[in-house]
Write a structure and sequence with these properties.
The protein has eleven helices and ten strands. By secondary structure, it is of the alpha+beta class. A hairpin with a 7-residue loop joins strand 1 and strand 2.
Length: 317
Protein backbone atom coordinates (compact mmCIF):
# COMPACT_ATOMS: atom_id res chain seq x y z
CA UNK A 1 0.00 0.00 0.00
CA UNK A 2 1.33 3.47 -0.83
CA UNK A 3 2.46 5.52 2.21
CA UNK A 4 -0.37 8.06 1.97
CA UNK A 5 -3.24 5.57 1.91
CA UNK A 6 -1.44 3.46 4.52
CA UNK A 7 -1.27 6.32 7.02
CA UNK A 8 -4.91 7.20 6.47
CA UNK A 9 -6.08 3.58 6.78
CA UNK A 10 -4.12 3.15 10.01
CA UNK A 11 -5.84 6.21 11.48
CA UNK A 12 -9.28 4.82 10.55
CA UNK A 13 -8.41 1.45 12.06
CA UNK A 14 -7.13 3.00 15.28
CA UNK A 15 -10.28 5.09 15.76
CA UNK A 16 -12.45 2.03 15.19
CA UNK A 17 -10.37 0.04 17.66
CA UNK A 18 -9.88 2.48 20.55
CA UNK A 19 -12.24 5.38 19.85
CA UNK A 20 -14.89 6.66 22.24
CA UNK A 21 -18.58 6.72 21.36
CA UNK A 22 -19.76 10.32 21.66
CA UNK A 23 -22.79 12.47 20.95
CA UNK A 24 -22.20 15.49 18.73
CA UNK A 25 -23.69 18.76 17.52
CA UNK A 26 -25.39 17.11 14.52
CA UNK A 27 -27.08 14.39 16.65
CA UNK A 28 -25.53 11.74 14.40
CA UNK A 29 -23.10 10.19 16.88
CA UNK A 30 -19.39 9.52 16.39
CA UNK A 31 -16.51 7.26 17.34
CA UNK A 32 -13.75 9.66 18.34
CA UNK A 33 -10.07 9.79 19.23
CA UNK A 34 -8.53 12.94 20.69
CA UNK A 35 -5.09 13.76 19.36
CA UNK A 36 -3.33 12.18 16.39
CA UNK A 37 -0.72 13.15 13.80
CA UNK A 38 -0.04 12.08 10.21
CA UNK A 39 3.04 13.00 8.15
CA UNK A 40 3.17 13.04 4.35
CA UNK A 41 6.44 13.36 2.42
CA UNK A 42 5.39 15.41 -0.59
CA UNK A 43 8.41 14.24 -2.54
CA UNK A 44 6.84 10.77 -2.71
CA UNK A 45 3.94 12.03 -4.83
CA UNK A 46 0.76 13.99 -4.24
CA UNK A 47 -1.40 12.60 -1.37
CA UNK A 48 -4.68 12.21 -3.21
CA UNK A 49 -6.01 9.00 -1.67
CA UNK A 50 -6.46 6.09 -4.07
CA UNK A 51 -8.60 3.65 -2.06
CA UNK A 52 -11.55 5.87 -2.99
CA UNK A 53 -11.71 8.61 -5.59
CA UNK A 54 -11.07 12.10 -4.21
CA UNK A 55 -12.12 14.71 -6.82
CA UNK A 56 -9.14 17.03 -7.25
CA UNK A 57 -11.26 19.68 -8.96
CA UNK A 58 -13.34 20.13 -5.82
CA UNK A 59 -10.24 20.25 -3.60
CA UNK A 60 -8.46 22.78 -5.82
CA UNK A 61 -11.40 25.12 -6.45
CA UNK A 62 -12.22 25.24 -2.74
CA UNK A 63 -8.60 26.09 -1.88
CA UNK A 64 -8.44 28.78 -4.59
CA UNK A 65 -11.71 30.16 -3.15
CA UNK A 66 -10.00 30.41 0.26
CA UNK A 67 -6.89 32.03 -1.24
CA UNK A 68 -9.02 34.64 -3.01
CA UNK A 69 -10.61 35.56 0.32
CA UNK A 70 -14.02 34.71 -1.12
CA UNK A 71 -16.85 33.59 1.17
CA UNK A 72 -19.71 33.29 -1.34
CA UNK A 73 -20.59 29.88 -2.80
CA UNK A 74 -21.25 31.42 -6.24
CA UNK A 75 -17.59 30.95 -7.25
CA UNK A 76 -17.74 27.30 -6.18
CA UNK A 77 -20.99 26.68 -8.06
CA UNK A 78 -19.43 28.09 -11.22
CA UNK A 79 -17.08 25.09 -11.03
CA UNK A 80 -19.93 22.71 -10.07
CA UNK A 81 -18.44 22.48 -6.59
CA UNK A 82 -21.28 21.78 -4.16
CA UNK A 83 -19.44 21.04 -0.93
CA UNK A 84 -20.61 24.18 0.92
CA UNK A 85 -24.19 24.31 -0.41
CA UNK A 86 -25.94 22.92 2.66
CA UNK A 87 -24.77 25.71 4.96
CA UNK A 88 -25.92 28.46 2.60
CA UNK A 89 -29.19 26.64 1.88
CA UNK A 90 -29.87 26.27 5.60
CA UNK A 91 -29.55 30.04 6.04
CA UNK A 92 -32.03 30.61 3.19
CA UNK A 93 -34.72 28.13 4.29
CA UNK A 94 -34.67 29.59 7.81
CA UNK A 95 -35.32 33.10 6.44
CA UNK A 96 -38.68 34.83 5.94
CA UNK A 97 -37.96 35.00 2.19
CA UNK A 98 -38.25 31.23 1.83
CA UNK A 99 -41.84 30.24 0.97
CA UNK A 100 -41.34 26.64 -0.15
CA UNK A 101 -41.99 23.27 1.52
CA UNK A 102 -40.83 22.74 5.10
CA UNK A 103 -37.07 22.05 5.09
CA UNK A 104 -36.60 21.63 8.85
CA UNK A 105 -33.74 19.20 9.57
CA UNK A 106 -33.37 18.58 5.83
CA UNK A 107 -30.07 16.70 6.15
CA UNK A 108 -31.42 13.86 8.26
CA UNK A 109 -34.85 13.77 6.64
CA UNK A 110 -33.38 13.38 3.15
CA UNK A 111 -31.57 10.26 4.34
CA UNK A 112 -34.66 8.64 5.81
CA UNK A 113 -37.49 9.70 3.49
CA UNK A 114 -37.19 9.19 -0.28
CA UNK A 115 -40.24 11.35 -1.00
CA UNK A 116 -38.82 14.22 1.03
CA UNK A 117 -35.39 13.72 -0.59
CA UNK A 118 -36.90 14.44 -4.02
CA UNK A 119 -38.56 17.62 -2.72
CA UNK A 120 -35.32 18.70 -1.01
CA UNK A 121 -33.24 18.14 -4.14
CA UNK A 122 -35.72 20.16 -6.21
CA UNK A 123 -35.52 23.07 -3.76
CA UNK A 124 -31.72 22.86 -3.67
CA UNK A 125 -31.51 23.03 -7.48
CA UNK A 126 -33.75 26.11 -7.49
CA UNK A 127 -31.54 27.66 -4.81
CA UNK A 128 -28.34 26.99 -6.77
CA UNK A 129 -29.83 28.44 -9.96
CA UNK A 130 -30.80 31.64 -8.16
CA UNK A 131 -27.32 31.94 -6.63
CA UNK A 132 -25.78 31.73 -10.11
CA UNK A 133 -28.28 33.98 -11.89
CA UNK A 134 -29.50 36.53 -9.33
CA UNK A 135 -26.71 38.74 -7.97
CA UNK A 136 -28.82 40.27 -5.20
CA UNK A 137 -30.00 36.84 -4.04
CA UNK A 138 -26.45 35.51 -4.22
CA UNK A 139 -25.13 38.39 -2.14
CA UNK A 140 -27.75 37.80 0.55
CA UNK A 141 -27.91 34.01 0.70
CA UNK A 142 -24.76 32.73 -1.00
CA UNK A 143 -22.40 34.28 1.52
CA UNK A 144 -21.27 32.11 4.44
CA UNK A 145 -20.07 34.89 6.69
CA UNK A 146 -16.51 35.35 7.89
CA UNK A 147 -15.28 31.83 7.10
CA UNK A 148 -11.79 30.67 6.06
CA UNK A 149 -11.04 32.98 3.12
CA UNK A 150 -12.06 36.05 5.09
CA UNK A 151 -9.78 35.14 8.00
CA UNK A 152 -6.83 34.22 5.77
CA UNK A 153 -6.97 37.43 3.76
CA UNK A 154 -8.81 39.99 5.93
CA UNK A 155 -8.51 39.22 9.63
CA UNK A 156 -9.99 42.03 11.72
CA UNK A 157 -8.86 42.52 15.32
CA UNK A 158 -10.81 44.04 18.21
CA UNK A 159 -9.60 47.52 17.25
CA UNK A 160 -10.81 47.25 13.65
CA UNK A 161 -7.35 46.73 12.14
CA UNK A 162 -7.20 44.51 9.02
CA UNK A 163 -4.50 41.90 8.35
CA UNK A 164 -3.84 39.89 5.20
CA UNK A 165 -2.36 36.90 7.01
CA UNK A 166 -1.56 34.80 3.95
CA UNK A 167 0.20 37.62 2.11
CA UNK A 168 2.18 38.55 5.20
CA UNK A 169 3.29 34.96 5.82
CA UNK A 170 4.46 34.54 2.23
CA UNK A 171 6.52 37.74 2.53
CA UNK A 172 7.99 36.47 5.81
CA UNK A 173 8.96 33.15 4.21
CA UNK A 174 10.75 35.04 1.43
CA UNK A 175 12.59 37.45 3.74
CA UNK A 176 12.97 35.51 7.02
CA UNK A 177 12.65 31.84 6.07
CA UNK A 178 13.74 30.47 9.46
CA UNK A 179 11.19 32.42 11.48
CA UNK A 180 8.97 30.42 13.82
CA UNK A 181 6.08 32.80 13.18
CA UNK A 182 4.89 31.62 9.74
CA UNK A 183 1.35 31.10 11.04
CA UNK A 184 -2.11 31.69 9.59
CA UNK A 185 -5.12 31.31 11.90
CA UNK A 186 -8.74 30.92 10.86
CA UNK A 187 -9.93 30.85 14.47
CA UNK A 188 -10.93 34.45 15.18
CA UNK A 189 -12.86 34.37 18.50
CA UNK A 190 -14.46 37.76 17.89
CA UNK A 191 -16.07 36.55 14.63
CA UNK A 192 -17.01 32.92 15.35
CA UNK A 193 -20.69 33.86 15.64
CA UNK A 194 -20.59 35.44 12.16
CA UNK A 195 -19.50 32.20 10.43
CA UNK A 196 -21.81 29.60 8.89
CA UNK A 197 -19.49 27.00 10.41
CA UNK A 198 -16.65 27.70 12.87
CA UNK A 199 -13.34 26.66 11.29
CA UNK A 200 -12.46 22.99 11.67
CA UNK A 201 -8.95 23.46 10.27
CA UNK A 202 -8.07 26.24 12.63
CA UNK A 203 -4.44 27.20 11.96
CA UNK A 204 -1.41 26.23 9.91
CA UNK A 205 2.32 26.92 10.15
CA UNK A 206 5.09 26.83 7.55
CA UNK A 207 8.66 25.67 8.15
CA UNK A 208 11.68 26.08 5.85
CA UNK A 209 14.63 23.70 5.95
CA UNK A 210 17.18 22.75 3.25
CA UNK A 211 15.33 24.93 0.72
CA UNK A 212 12.15 22.90 1.29
CA UNK A 213 8.83 24.20 2.59
CA UNK A 214 6.78 22.11 5.01
CA UNK A 215 3.35 22.87 6.45
CA UNK A 216 1.63 21.71 9.62
CA UNK A 217 -2.12 22.00 10.04
CA UNK A 218 -3.96 21.84 13.37
CA UNK A 219 -7.50 20.60 12.84
CA UNK A 220 -9.74 20.87 15.91
CA UNK A 221 -12.52 18.72 14.45
CA UNK A 222 -11.98 16.14 11.73
CA UNK A 223 -14.64 14.16 9.85
CA UNK A 224 -12.27 11.32 9.01
CA UNK A 225 -14.24 9.74 6.18
CA UNK A 226 -15.63 12.70 4.24
CA UNK A 227 -13.53 15.70 5.24
CA UNK A 228 -10.01 14.52 5.97
CA UNK A 229 -9.14 13.14 2.50
CA UNK A 230 -10.02 16.60 1.15
CA UNK A 231 -8.07 18.35 3.91
CA UNK A 232 -4.95 16.27 3.24
CA UNK A 233 -5.05 17.10 -0.46
CA UNK A 234 -5.99 20.76 0.11
CA UNK A 235 -3.17 21.64 2.49
CA UNK A 236 -0.67 19.60 0.46
CA UNK A 237 -1.73 21.68 -2.55
CA UNK A 238 -1.38 24.87 -0.48
CA UNK A 239 2.16 23.80 0.47
CA UNK A 240 3.02 23.29 -3.20
CA UNK A 241 1.56 26.67 -4.19
CA UNK A 242 3.31 28.63 -1.44
CA UNK A 243 6.59 26.83 -2.16
CA UNK A 244 6.20 27.69 -5.85
CA UNK A 245 5.52 31.32 -4.94
CA UNK A 246 8.62 31.47 -2.74
CA UNK A 247 11.01 29.60 -5.04
CA UNK A 248 11.27 26.59 -2.71
CA UNK A 249 10.89 22.85 -3.07
CA UNK A 250 8.26 20.98 -1.04
CA UNK A 251 8.98 19.07 2.14
CA UNK A 252 6.29 17.53 4.36
CA UNK A 253 2.64 18.10 5.11
CA UNK A 254 2.03 17.36 8.79
CA UNK A 255 -1.60 16.87 9.80
CA UNK A 256 -2.34 17.24 13.52
CA UNK A 257 -5.84 16.44 14.82
CA UNK A 258 -7.84 17.36 17.88
CA UNK A 259 -11.15 15.45 17.78
CA UNK A 260 -10.66 12.87 15.00
CA UNK A 261 -14.00 11.15 14.49
CA UNK A 262 -15.92 8.75 12.30
CA UNK A 263 -19.66 9.39 12.13
CA UNK A 264 -21.83 6.43 13.05
CA UNK A 265 -23.55 6.54 9.65
CA UNK A 266 -20.14 6.29 7.89
CA UNK A 267 -19.05 2.99 9.44
CA UNK A 268 -20.04 0.78 6.50
CA UNK A 269 -18.38 3.18 4.06
CA UNK A 270 -15.16 3.15 6.10
CA UNK A 271 -15.09 -0.64 6.15
CA UNK A 272 -15.54 -0.69 2.38
CA UNK A 273 -12.58 1.62 1.95
CA UNK A 274 -10.41 -0.34 4.38
CA UNK A 275 -11.01 -3.51 2.34
CA UNK A 276 -9.33 -1.97 -0.72
CA UNK A 277 -5.71 -1.97 -1.83
CA UNK A 278 -4.00 1.19 -3.08
CA UNK A 279 -2.57 2.45 -6.34
CA UNK A 280 0.59 4.45 -6.96
CA UNK A 281 0.12 8.09 -5.88
CA UNK A 282 -0.28 10.75 -8.59
CA UNK A 283 1.89 13.78 -9.34
CA UNK A 284 0.94 17.46 -9.20
CA UNK A 285 1.95 19.85 -11.98
CA UNK A 286 1.73 23.65 -11.65
CA UNK A 287 1.43 24.92 -15.22
CA UNK A 288 1.97 28.63 -14.63
CA UNK A 289 4.32 31.21 -13.16
CA UNK A 290 1.39 33.34 -12.00
CA UNK A 291 1.24 34.51 -8.40
CA UNK A 292 -0.60 32.28 -5.96
CA UNK A 293 -3.13 35.12 -5.64
CA UNK A 294 -3.95 34.99 -9.36
CA UNK A 295 -3.90 31.24 -9.92
CA UNK A 296 -6.84 29.46 -11.52
CA UNK A 297 -7.93 25.85 -11.41
CA UNK A 298 -6.92 25.50 -15.06
CA UNK A 299 -3.30 26.22 -14.04
CA UNK A 300 -3.10 22.93 -12.10
CA UNK A 301 -2.91 19.35 -13.30
CA UNK A 302 -2.89 15.95 -11.61
CA UNK A 303 -1.03 13.29 -13.56
CA UNK A 304 -1.29 9.52 -13.15
CA UNK A 305 -4.23 9.44 -10.76
CA UNK A 306 -5.70 5.95 -10.57
CA UNK A 307 -8.15 5.12 -7.81
CA UNK A 308 -10.99 2.91 -6.68
CA UNK A 309 -14.50 4.37 -7.17
CA UNK A 310 -15.87 7.03 -4.85
CA UNK A 311 -17.89 5.93 -1.81
CA UNK A 312 -20.95 8.00 -0.98
CA UNK A 313 -21.83 8.91 2.60
CA UNK A 314 -24.13 11.57 4.14
CA UNK A 315 -22.70 14.89 5.30
CA UNK A 316 -23.53 16.01 8.84
CA UNK A 317 -24.77 19.63 8.84
Amino acid sequence: MNPFDKSYHELCEEILEIGNKRDDRTNTGTISKFGHQLRFNLNQGFPLLTTKRVPFKLVATELIWFIKGDTNIKYLLEYNNNIWNEWAFEKYVKSDDYQGPDMTNFGHRALEDEAFKAVYQEQMEKFKTRILEDDAFSEQYGDLGNVYGKQWRDWVDQHGNHFDQLKQVIEQIKTHPYSRRHIVSAWNPTEIDTMALPPCHTMFQFYVQDNKLSCQLYQRSADIFLGVPFNIASYSLLTHLVAHECGLEVGEFVHTFGDAHIYSNHLDAVQTQLSRSSYKPPKLKILTDKSIFDIDYEDLKIEGYESHPSIKAPIAV
